[in-house]
């Protein structure tokens, strides 16, 4: 969690309260504070820049709408993070629901198609490799290995059963290791 | 002499329970369509409508009860069982109350059974483990319990019944009937049913009887069995669906398997002129449409 | 332990999920096997690199103006359809004020959340080019978020239920718990079916409806009158039915 000078929990709570009451200026300050984190998550989970921008906007619009339901039991950033994951997963399902290829989140052929694009020998860095993972594996890898969530939490965030989450993680790691020759 | 002495000693050593059963009897004047609110813990609450503008209360208080609080106010009478402080054991308190016919009743008990007869006002009845029984023609009934049974005999309209593990039995229902249950069953006998909505999770649901030509019957069950028994002359549109269960149909048309990734069946057909609407949906429960 | 076994437990070893005995077996093998040692190092560096990725990335442009635009237009007044039960079925028993407040909060929250009927169904383009109209409440983002919210609400209610343990008779408590478990397993079954067919609107709708059922049951259970009004201790000695 970003802690800049002068920021402490009480102050953020006050900001959240004001924003929840309709104070757009307070909301903008929350946006400035958290957009980096939200965007990073959207970018990594979606693998596409323009989609990440759209998703980030969607997240903050939804945050504005749902702010009144934030009860303060967890840190605001955790709540926001969870909302971000939900928005990204939901949006993905909406857009690609009609595409049979993505119905099975782990379609191996999809992965193979992406991987073959890199056959020309362009060196893969980790971020690019993650972006080519299929959605399910990518989601879990981002949440577990990059963001540090546990499988139980991933389950409650994404609706993926903890057993499945673990399997997806192992699959993601295996694929990444193959791609990065690690 | 010695024997007597011993006897006397023994007698003085045994504490003789001085508790005697309290009887209460009160008669109060009231308005013809006022509200009567009753609370009890264990035992029973029996309320009978009569033609007098009076409320008569007869009660036998159980062990552990300090008194029966009777609190009349503007248009309402509150009757509640007040327990002794720091008492750990309660006996049965039986309340028999006569109320004006068109009274509105609000009854709440923990384990006491509730029995209402001949009251025509609105009834709100709730118990945790007591049974709820209603006869007569109240304007509406809302009955709720956890493990008790709900039995409505001849109540026709405006029914909302909810239980968790008890049984809900509705006899002779007609309009605006809703019932829900979790593991208990729902058994409905419809008499020219206008509208009925029934939902059970794992208990079974049985509907039998007749529907009004413009009637609608909606049944939803998760894993329990749904049985719909209708006369051969029924004229209705049927919309039957189960996600992974099976459909058995007496009315001639066989269910088709759903065109989806999982097993399941659906069935849409009409009999007669397709007047009434019948829809049944389950997740895994069996659906049976039976001709009677 | 051989190299093949090592491969199988490699992930769990890195995540610290192995028992002390298993861990020992791995370490013993590693001492003797340079190939596996090297693989472990490379794997570890991959994970370390992942962990070290910047958690915050600034977007290429400032998104605030666009967000602000979307806030200005179309902010719906969400009003609670369900108020805290004012008929106060059980309030006469003066049950825990905390529980009552909690229930009121959750009631309002349920009403303003995804369980409300939305007026605009979502349109989806199907594979064959036709347009499908989905029932309002099954838009997928609703499901995912609703689930997280459902978990929070049900956890809170279960907590309240646990805290009031002995103010309900053991039998009633058992009935309540059993039926909560029943609905839980129904939810499990639906989710199992959804894994194979995630886009199925009927299943999604059923899932939401079943969440509602569960929350309703939990609410009722937390609001039941205590056996001993005002104190929540004591039990009922005799019951005219054998249900207690």
Task: List the defining traits of the structure above.
heterotrimer; A: 182 residues; mainly alpha; Rna Polymerase Sigma Factor, Chain: A; Arc Repressor Mutant, subunit A; 2 domains; 10 helices; 74% helix; disordered N terminus; C: 244 residues; 8 helices; extended
Mean pLDDT score of chain C: 70
Largest sheet of chain C: 2 strands, antiparallel
Q: Give the low-pLDDT segments of chain A.
A: 1-8, 97-122
* CATH architectural name of the largest domain in chain A: Orthogonal Bundle
- Rg measurement of chain A, Å: 18 Å
Strand percentage of chain C lies at under 5%
Compute the number of structural domains of chain C. Answer: 2
Q: How many extended strands of chain A?
A: 0
Quickly count the helices of chain A: 10
For the termini of chain C, the CA-CA separation is 57 Å
Shape of chain A: elongated
Strand line-up in the sheet with most strands of chain C: 1-2
Helix content of chain C: 55-70%
Indicate the radius of gyration of chain C in whole angstroms.
26 Å
Determine the most extensive contact between two protein chains.
A-C, 60 and 50 residues
Using the alpha-carbon principal axes, give the shape of chain C.
Answer: extended
Structural class of chain C: mainly alpha
The secondary structure category of chain A is mainly alpha
Percentage of residues in strands of chain A: under 5%
Helix content of chain A: over 70%
At the first level of CATH, the class of the largest domain in chain A is Mainly Alpha
């Amino acid at each position: 969690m970003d802690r800049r000078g002068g920021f402490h929990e009480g102050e953020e709570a006050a900001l959240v309260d004001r924003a929840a009451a309709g104070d757009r200026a307070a909301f903008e300050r929350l946006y400035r504070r958290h957009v980096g984190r939200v965007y990073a998550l959207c970018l990594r989970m979606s693998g596409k820049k323009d989609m990440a921008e759209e998703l980030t906007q969607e997240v903050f619009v939804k945050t504005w709408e749902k702010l009144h339901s934030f009860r303060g039991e967890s840190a605001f950033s955790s709540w926001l993070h969870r909302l971000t994951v939900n928005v990204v997963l939901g949006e993905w399902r909406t857009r690609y629901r009609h595409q049979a290829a993505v119905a099975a989140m782990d379609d191996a052929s999809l992965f193979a198609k992406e991987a073959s694009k890199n056959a020309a020998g362009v060196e893969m860095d980790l971020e690019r490799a993650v972006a080519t993972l299929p959605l399910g594996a990518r989601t879990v890898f981002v949440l577990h290995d990059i963001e540090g969530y546990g499988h139980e939490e991933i389950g409650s965030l994404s609706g993926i059963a903890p057993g499945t989450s673990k399997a997806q993680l192992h699959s993601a790691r295996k694929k990444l290791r193959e791609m990065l020759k690690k | 002499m010695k024997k007597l002495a011993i006897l006397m000693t023994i007698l003085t050593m045994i504490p003789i329970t001085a508790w005697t059963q309290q009887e209460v009897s009160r008669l109060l004047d009231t308005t013809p369509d006022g509200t009567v609110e009753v609370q009890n813990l264990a035992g029973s609450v029996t309320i009978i409508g009569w033609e007098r503008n009076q409320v008569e209360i007869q009660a036998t208080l159980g062990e552990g009860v300090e008194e029966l609080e009777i609190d009349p106010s503007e248009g309402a009478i509150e009757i509640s069982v007040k327990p002794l402080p720091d008492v750990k054991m309660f006996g049965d308190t039986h309340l028999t109350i006569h109320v004006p016919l068109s009274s509105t009743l609000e009854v709440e008990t923990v384990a006491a059974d509730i029995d209402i007869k001949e009251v025509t006002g609105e009834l709100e009845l709730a118990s945790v483990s007591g049974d709820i029984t209603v006869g007569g023609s109240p304007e509406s009934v809302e009955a709720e319990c956890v493990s008790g049974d709900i039995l409505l005999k001849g109540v026709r309209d405006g029914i909302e019944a909810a239980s968790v593990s008890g049984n809900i039995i509705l006899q002779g229902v007609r309009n605006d009937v809703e019932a829900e249950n979790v593991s208990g069953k729902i058994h409905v006998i419809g008499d020219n049913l206008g509208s009925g909505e029934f939902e059970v999770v794992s208990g079974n649901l049985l509907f039998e009887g007749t529907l009004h030509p413009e009637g609608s019957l909606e049944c939803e069950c998760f894993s329990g069995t749904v049985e719909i028994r209708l006369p051969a002359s029924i004229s209705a549109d049927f919309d039957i669906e189960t996600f992974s269960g099976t459909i058995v149909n007496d009315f001639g048309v066989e269910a088709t398997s759903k065109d989806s990734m999982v097993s399941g069946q659906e069935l849409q057909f009409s009999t007669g002129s397709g007047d009434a609407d019948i829809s049944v949906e389950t997740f895994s429960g069996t659906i049976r449409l039976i001709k009677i | 332990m051989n190299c093949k076994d090592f491969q199988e437990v490699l992930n769990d070893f890195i995540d610290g999920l192995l028992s002390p005995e298993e861990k020992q077996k791995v370490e013993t093998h590693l001492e003797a096997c340079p190939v596996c040692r090297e693989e472990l190092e490379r794997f570890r560096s991959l994970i370390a690199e992942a962990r070290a990725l910047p958690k915050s990335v600034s977007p290429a442009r400032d998104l605030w103006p666009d967000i602000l635009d979307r806030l200005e237009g179309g902010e719906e007044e969400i009003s609670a359809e369900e108020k805290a039960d004012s008929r106060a079925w059980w309030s006469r028993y003066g049950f825990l004020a905390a529980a009552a407040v909690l229930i009121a909060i959750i009631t309002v929250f349920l009403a303003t959340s995804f369980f409300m009927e939305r007026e605009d169904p979502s349109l989806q383009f199907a594979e064959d080019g036709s347009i499908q109209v989905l029932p309002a409440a099954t838009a997928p983002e609703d499901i995912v978020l609703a689930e997280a919210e459902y978990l929070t609400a049900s956890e809170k209610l279960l907590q309240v239920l646990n805290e009031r343990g002995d103010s309900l008779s053991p039998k009633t408590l058992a009935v309540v718990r059993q039926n909560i478990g029943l609905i839980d397993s129904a939810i499990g079954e639906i989710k199992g079916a959804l894994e194979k067919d995630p886009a199925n609107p009927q299943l999604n709708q059923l899932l939401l409806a079943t969440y509602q059922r569960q929350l309703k049951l939990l609410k009722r259970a937390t609001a039941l009158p205590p056996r001993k009004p005002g104190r929540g201790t004591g039990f009922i000695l005799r019951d005219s039915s054998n249900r207690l």
